Amino acid sequence: MSEKSFKTVKAKLLECNKLPEPIKEILKNNNSLKDLDENNFNQLWVLIHDFVKEMTQVENITQDAELLLCYQCILDLVNYTITCADEDILSVCEREHNYLYKTILVFQTFYSTNLKYKFKIDIVKMCCSFWQFVTSSPTQIGSDNSINLDSILTQNFVFTLNYIFDTIKVTTKKMDMKVVSTLLWEFCKIVSTLPSNINGLNFIVPNLKNLMKCTLFLETETGKLTIADIFTCSQQLFHIFHQIIKQILTKANKSLAAAYGEIYFMAWINSNSSIREVIEEKIFDLISKTLTLQRIGLSFNTYRNALTLLQSLQNHRKHLMFSKVITKLYTPVIWRQLTSEFSVVRCNATDILARAYPLEKRGEGREVSSRFLIKQQNAFLDLLVDACPQVRITAIKGICSCMRYFWNSFEDEQILESFKVFIRLIDESVFEVRRVLLYGFCQLLDEFKSHSYFKNPFLITKLKNTFYDENEKVRRAFIHLLLKIKKVDSHSDTSDKINFTKIVDLRNIASALAREDKQNGLLLVDLIFDNFIGDKVADKHTTLRRFYTFYKINPNAFRKLIIYSEKHLDFNSACKLILSLIKTVYSALKKKEERLKNIDKENDVPPKRRKSNDDSDSDNDSNNSSCSSTVSNNEEEEQNEHNNICCILDCVNCLMILHRNEFKNEENHQQIKDIQDSSITCLIKIFKFYKEGDAYYSAMSLASLMPLSKLTPHVSITSTALSTLKQLPYDINQAEEEIDMRKVDCLVYALCMWKRGYEILQFVNVWFDEAFKTLNLNETQYPDSKISRGKKVRFQINFDECKPMTGILLINSILTNLQTQKTLTDSDVNKKNTYDLFLYLHRVKTAIENRISSDNVLSNLLTDDVLIELFLLHNRLHIIYHSQKKDIDEIIKYQTSILDWVSNNLLISDLHHKDEATIKFTVKIIEIVNKMTLNMCLMAFVNAIYLDDYITFCATVLHNYIGPWLLTTMIATLAHISKYFNYQKYVGNLSNDTSILTNCVCSIISVLSESKFNADRFISVIGDPKIFRNNLITQILEIYKMNTVEFNQVFMTLIETIMNIIANQIREIDEIDLNEQLTEMPFASYQLSALVLSNAKLRKHFSSNAVAIFSSNVFKNDCVLLLSAISFVYTLSFQLSKTITIDLEPVVKLLYKTLMEHNITRTPLGDNCTINNTNADRGVSILETSNFSNEVTNFKQKGRNVLIATAKQLHVTLSE
């Protein structure tokens, strides 16, 4: 600081009213610190010290602005003194009499006050400056003081250091953290250089440990330097640091992991050779440990963080010496682990090599470096064809990343070989490999030099087939690739473009867009939309022409194109397009009208006598014949016109649906009015020209969005729609001509949107009544029915007019669409019609009872399918009606009555004597009950009492003959009930006794051992094995979350059922089947075993409890069950890929011990344990003849031989 600076500080001090006059007098008489003699200097700081210390006792110091200003000025003076300090000034006193020093110490007491943060930081900066001065010139405070610097810090600056550490913990702003971390580093870097720093380190190290998880602190450069400087003070300290990092990596985030890597490098670069050796040893330890980490659970998180840390280290390879260190540390361990017998290790090694690439032999010559690079590239090529899919996936990611960033390091030969392997991998059986490869191509395209390789005809052919891949994620990856090609082509010259249209054409894209879901559909629209509207399109005529072309290729794809266009077409642009399209249609219809008038004039036909194109008469009039001939000559033109009108109407319809929310805004009122007026004018003309066909239904779909009141004065569309629905065939699914359900749904939707859905319910109810009349169950037989009596009752059944199945389809069409479903309860009239239909369908229960008791189909109208659908409809209507009012109690009450009805009326004792069709019919009815309960559970329309009733109902069903037929739907429903229980448990509202559910699940599992199920019978009775396994595993895992004791009960039942099924087979055939494959086991036991082995939690539980399970007395007392356990473990020993986490060795030893200690010395299995054919004269049992010798043996010998074979397979030694 200059003299001017001192004058500024002095002037501010003299202006302070609170400053004592003696201090002011000393300052007034001196223009510089050098002007002060020893006495004045000492006196000045004594007075300042006493003043500051005295004022610290004042209450409410933060309220005294004058005093705070005085403190700030004194602080400036202290800083000035330290900054300008020299030997003449600071050698005037010994430290114990240095009041400047004591003043600094007093200022540290302000950290605990409520003073402003900036003032406290100024105090820290002052202390830091003083500390730097003291350590740089120790002789200025006494000749012996250099020895005590370590104690100076810990004794006199502890308040400052504590404040810094506490502030870092609570700081949330980056700029503030940068300031505080810099101050801490200023202190610490000096401590790290002191000859004696034990006290300082003992204080700083524990505090730094607490900051090792502070992301914001470690994101600052000085924060990382602080840790690097302190923990490299000794080898022991760095060892501590390394252990801390290994512990934190388990739960660290990516930012922290990257910061740790930076610290390792900073520590290495700033250390001496002895410390560097330790650091390199620790880095090698990290690499070695990372290579062997599992890719599951917490271990996988550690692995990802370790990779990030290592990547952060590798980013400093530009440093020549460190690059050599990286190569030295990585090379030996990576080459060894790339060929490891464990796929997870190979996978990790591949990942690390990809991130470390290119490992360089710098300074060893070009030839050595080139060979070393080729060796790494060849390693990737070998890994691309590894037996493990996960290794192949990692290798694809690795080599694509390496080629993207280090293309020039690859020779042409290596690149060609890589693409040959890529082409083969496109046909890979594992979908994840195909998916990752396509995303790898996206990455490669960022390298301009790779583009020529994507023009390979073989690659293009293979890629095109990917558009039809069975896996949705692979197709999505391919669409991303097309988008990437489009993007890179937009930045390339014409000659260098890949051109995605050479891979797929417009028809391929249309076909894909029509069948894909929304996620993939949006990407496809991104790919092609700018070819319809945008800078690439010359004018609106081009847009229209391209719309027509795309619609002709695939109408459904075109509709999706518009529906998914929100990202590319804003609201105002959409409105302009709608008006333009409507105008185009109207103009085309006017031209057509004029053309037809001219034809009529030429043929002398009055205009009013002309029929529409789709409604022409078969008149023999010569003039009409001439007209018809003219039209047929232009048939293709008429068809194109028809398609074009459909295209425009569908486009307008989709745009209005897409922007329906914007149309509701008040500011857009005029736009919707203009569009409605134009649309209605256009629709009126369309309905006059088209009475059927696609144009009619497209117009109906658009009309459903318009106010009906504006259409009815001109056209009778509602009556026409109702008439069309009434004329549908008896059974739409079995009609001679295929019925387009999209058109049926269109009419139903339109009527519902016009508030005329109740009319569908009314005429459908008439059909139902005619059908029930065959059983005398029509409405006249039900006086309590609330159905309106104003309907016409038909006394003769006309099959053409009575269509119950068609009626069901129409009502289901209403219920399936949420918008139309809401119309059933949006008014009192609709509510009444809905509830009346529900009440009317009560009689379906009586019809179902009659069907089961008669053991025959009731009539041609009330077929089994009709009754099943009516019963489902009856239940759905009840839930929909009451859910609108949130009347959960009423829903539960009625569904409980359904459970009672099924138990009392359907589960009859002689059901097993009924016809197979009757049994299947009964099963379908009860499946509906299961389905209703599942839906109620999903909607939370249940309570504890109902769920208990349902579980009891399931137990009742299981004890009936038809129990096995209902296992799949029952277990699916119970699984959702378990999820509901777990949610209730989470919120603390679970009041059910879950043991009832657990017992029910155990009963379901046990059913599989009560009857013999081969594959055909399993599928016929229980259903799809995969669905059954998925439902059951979901159920078991939900019980695991709910109660571990009950889970153990279920799991034990599962294993016992497997054993019983195998035991039943042993008893039946008098032989132990030595099955090496799960599929060779009895089918039901195979399904349950596959369930256990396919889930990690169940495998782990089995491994942990297998010894306890097979220690049960059941296996000690029943020799057949003991043999079934031995057979089961023998089969498991051949499933190494699935049982790798299951330790079978103790199980084998236990079974061997149990077998040898069995109290029956000789038990010929055929005589003592066979339950089938016990009276047959079979001779010697097959089990008495060992497969391993020709001697007659007892069951012990047989079991012993199987266990020995198992032990050999597992490389286990058995001892007598």
UniProtKB/TrEMBL annotation:
<dbReference type="InterPro" id="IPR016024">
    <property type="entry name" value="ARM-type_fold"/>
</dbReference>
<dbReference type="InterPro" id="IPR024741">
    <property type="entry name" value="Condensin2_G2"/>
</dbReference>
<dbReference type="GO" id="GO:0000796">
    <property type="term" value="C:condensin complex"/>
</dbReference>
<dbReference type="GO" id="GO:0005634">
    <property type="term" value="C:nucleus"/>
</dbReference>
<feature type="compositionally biased region" description="Low complexity">
    <location>
        <begin position="621"/>
        <end position="633"/>
    </location>
</feature>
<protein>
    <submittedName>
        <fullName>Uncharacterized protein</fullName>
    </submittedName>
</protein>
<dbReference type="InterPro" id="IPR011989">
    <property type="entry name" value="ARM-like"/>
</dbReference>
<feature type="compositionally biased region" description="Basic and acidic residues">
    <location>
        <begin position="597"/>
        <end position="607"/>
    </location>
</feature>
<dbReference type="Pfam" id="PF12422">
    <property type="entry name" value="Condensin2nSMC"/>
</dbReference>
<feature type="region of interest" description="Disordered">
    <location>
        <begin position="597"/>
        <end position="635"/>
    </location>
</feature>
<dbReference type="GO" id="GO:0000070">
    <property type="term" value="P:mitotic sister chromatid segregation"/>
</dbReference>
